[in-house]
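User: structure tokens for this one?
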Amino acid sequence: MSKVKFELEFPIHASPSMLYQYFATPAGLEEWFADKVNSRGKLITFFWDDSEEEAKIITKKSDERIKFKWTESEDDDSYFEFKIQVDPLTKDVAVIVTDFADDEDDVEEAKMLWENQIEELKHTIGA
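Assistant:
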């Protein structure tokens, strides 16, 4: 069964290099995304309460993007990505989150989850 891809864009008042640290380092991710984060090379383990999930870093470009793939979904094309976009004219910064939901019915719930997570990130960095 194929998953449903969706994208969300969030304007954030922060520099791309600072934002990237919150997406690409265990310490940064622990500030807003997971309770605890361990990193072994390209393998990242996220801990929440009583659960743990592993993801691999597929691609990353400093201050621009990082893409993860959950190890449990290795048999499909899904991933989640944080892309930092800067408007060339206004210099406004936005984060574009790309993710996949299991089906159409789960898209809205997944979007709400990301909206809450990004609000947490904004609160953490004071943006």
